[in-house]
């Protein structure tokens, strides 16, 4: 029974580690990159840069491509 306390501590530590691993499942860097890539749905017709929403796309187009004519789908977007 000299190692009884150590056994209890070891089991508690192992359970805590298992809970931490279970909580982090699905939060790896590759999973986060895949989720972020899905959010980038708008693609600039000039430079092929990807943006998450039309407002950002319009701001990008106005700042980066001022001499080019704005696409029809961006003209209706309020900045």
TrEMBL record:
Keywords: Cytoplasm, Nucleus. Residues 1-34, 57-79 are annotated as: Disordered. One of its GO terms (cellular component) is cytoplasm. Residues 1-13 have a biased composition (Low complexity). It comes from the Eukaryota. The keyword Cytoplasm applies. Residues 1-40 form the Small EDRK-rich factor-like N-terminal domain. This is Small EDRK-rich factor-like N-terminal domain-containing protein.
